[in-house]
Design brief:
With 220 residues, this protein is α/β, with parallel strands linked by helices. The chain has a single domain (8-216), classed as Purple Acid Phosphatase, chain A, domain 2, CATH 3.60.21. Helices cover 17% and strands 28% of the residues. It is built from four helices and 15 strands. Strands 7, 8, 9, 10, 11, 12, 13, 14 and 15 form a nine-stranded mixed sheet that branches. Strands 1-2-3-4-5-6 form a six-stranded mixed sheet, with no helix packed on it. Helix 2 (47-62) packs parallel to helix 4 (85-95).
């Protein structure tokens, strides 16, 4: 539950708000590979296709009425112009028959000509969805921006995974993009967001999400 609303963190990195039929993803960072290539750093140019493939799988699993992309959907302001025709077509097909909302991020302006609608933030019942989490925000905030990840020790040894960070009142989503990195949950950036109690790390495993107490999360 998240501020009284049923919320399911999915192993893909998406958050399913079943009462609203809404699927929320954050920090897709489409066209990060092409952005780096423009600066002479050659990465495989398949990050947008890989991210869209994972997004398509989770949309097929939940068949949401609404998809909300919580900002930084493109890695930079020119990304929407560089997206390939095949990926553009895939994205448009995903939007068919449902509402699609692009939330403004700090990396990208509102996507133009890619379908859906744009907003700085939206409300779904008692929940507020925005890109950047705000210190002192009212309960019910869902945000992204910080790319939370957790470093834990398991029977298989130490590992680092993307995670959802939540205290039951607010939630910071992991980055969904294939090339997006992660910020350790013990970084000082998270502490002001959870002043009353440390968050639980809902860690993305291979086949499920694991709730890991903050005390078991390690610093880098």
């Amino acid at each position: 539950m998240l501020h009284g609303v049923a919320a399911l963190p999915d192993v893909s990195g998406a958050l399913w708000l079943m009462d609203h039929g809404a699927l929320v993803v954050s920090d897709l960072h489409f066209e990060k590979g092409s952005a780096y290539a423009m600066r002479g750093v050659m990465l495989p140019p398949y990050d947008t296709a890989a991210t869209l493939a994972r997004l398509g799988e989770v949309i097929a699993r939940y068949t949401p009425k609404i998809v909300v992309a919580l900002g930084d959907s493109f890695h930079d302001g020119g990304g929407e112009k560089r997206i390939g025709e095949a990926d553009r077509t895939t994205l448009c097909e995903m939007q068919s028959g449902r509402e699609w909302i692009w939330i403004s991020g700090n990396h990208d302006p509102d996507p133009v000509g890619l379908g859906g609608s744009c907003a700085k933030e939206i409300s779904l019942g008692p929940l507020t969805l925005r890109h950047e989490p705000q210190t002192g925000a009212a309960p019910g905030e869902i945000a992204g921006h910080l790319h939370p990840s957790a470093r834990v020790v398991s029977r298989a040894g130490g590992l680092r995974r993307r995670c959802f960070a939540s205290d039951g009142s607010r939630c910071v989503l992991p980055a969904f993009g294939a090339f997006a990195g992660g910020l350790n949950l013990r970084d000082a950036a998270f502490a002001p967001l959870f002043p009353n109690a440390p968050p639980v790390a809902h860690v993305m495993g291979r086949g499920r999400v694991y709730a890991v107490p903050f005390a078991r999360c390690l610093s880098d």
